[in-house]
Amino acid sequence: MTISALQFLVLHEMHEGEYTSAWNLVGIATRMSMQLKLYESNSPGTFLQQECRRRLMWAVLVSDLLYESNSHINLELLMDVPLPCNLWSFTQGQPCKTLTLRQLRGVVEDEAIKQSSNHCAYLINILVIRRKILTYMQEAQDSKMDLPWLPGSNFSILCEELETWRRNLPANYAFVERHMYTFRVSRHLDIFLMIHAYYHQCCIILFGAFVPEDVGSKIQRFVTQIPPEFIQTCSDRYVSHARDISFLIQKVLKVEPDHLFRDPWLSLCIWDSTSALLASTRWQENRNSYRDDVTELVKLNLRALENSMPIIVLAKKVVGDARPPD
After folding, report:
1. Distances in Å between the alpha carbon of 142 and those of 40, 138, 253, 278?
2. What share of residues in the chain are helix, strand, coil (percent, to 5)?
3. Long-range pairs for 10-19 at CB < 8 Å and ≥24 separation?
4. Where mainly located (predicted)?
C-alpha cells in the first residue's frame, strides 16, 4: 500500500506543478519496489494478486522513465515480466498470457497474445525506447558519437526499434475516429493519445539531433562531412512527426471539441512539436504559405494547452512560450 500511496502522491505533485517533490517521491517508490522485488513473476497468490503486484511495478517503472530519477530500474530484470493484461481478464481474474518487453524487441506475429495484453503495454514499450533515445543523446554529448548514417550505428538501431514498435501496434490501435470513440467510452482516450504522442516525440528528439536548426542538434560534433541526404531525411521526418502531434490533437478535438487533456506530459510533447514546427520555417522555400500552415498547427497545440490549463500547471508554463509565428 505504501508504494501505491507514493504513486498517487507523485500524480498529485505533478498536477500541482511540484516537480522536485514528485521526482523525490519517484526515487523512493523505485527503491522500495526493487527491494521488495515486485518484478518477480513467481510471487505467491492468485492471478489477480500477481497481476496487481506486476501492475504496481509497471506503474513505478513508468514514473521512473518519465521523471528520470537517479534510482534507475535495471530494465533487464523486467524483460520477461508479463506486461499488464487486458481489462476483461483483469476484471474476471482470468489468467492469460501477455506480451513481454523482450518479445516486443522483435515483430510479434501472435495476434492472440497482443489482444490479451493491455494497451498500456505499448505505452510502457515506447517509454523504454524513449529512455534509450535520451541516453543516446546524453552519451553523444559526453563522448564521441558514432557516425549515425552508417548501418549498425546506435542511431540506426534506435530507428529500427521505433519501426518495430510501430509494426507491433495492433490494427485497432490506429489513431482513427472509430477507435477513438471506443477509447473515449472506456475513458482511456488520453492514454490512447499518449501512446501515439510519445512515439512522435521520440522521433522528433532522435531526428532533431541531426537537424541544424534544432536546439539539440549534434551536427557540430562531427569532423567528417555529413551526407546531405542524411540531413534531409532527418529534417523531413523531424517535421513530419512534429506535424503528426498537432494532427493527433486535431482528431481528438474533432471527436470532443472541449476535451480536457489530462496527461501533464502531453504539454512536453506539444512543446517539442511546436519547437520543431517553428524551427522548420527557417529552411522552407515557400516560407509565407508554409508559415501560415505552421501557424494553424501551432494554434491547435495552443488550444490543447488552453484546454488543459484548468488542471495542468505544466500547460500554463508551456503555453506562455508556445506562441505562433508573427
Report:
1. 35, 6, 41, 28
2. 65, 0, 35
3. 10/63, 10/67, 14/264, 14/314, 15/264, 15/311, 15/312, 15/313, 16/313, 17/313, 17/314, 17/317
4. nucleus
From the list 96, 95, 98, the residue with the least C-alpha distance to 108 is: 98
Q: How does DSSP classify residue 85?
A: B
Which residue has 512536453 as its cell numbers?
268
How remote is the C-alpha of 232 from its chain's centroid? 24
Any alpha helices (H) in 77-227, and if so which ranges?
A: 87-92, 111-115, 120-142, 154-168, 177-185, 189-208
Question: Can you spell out the DSSP letters for 17-50?
Answer: T-HHHHHHHHHHHHHHHHHTTTT-TT-SS-HHHH
Let me know: does 303 contact 249? Beta carbons within 8 Å: yes
The 8-class DSSP code of residue 261 comes to -
Which single residue is written with the C-alpha cell 522513465? 65
pTM score: 0.92
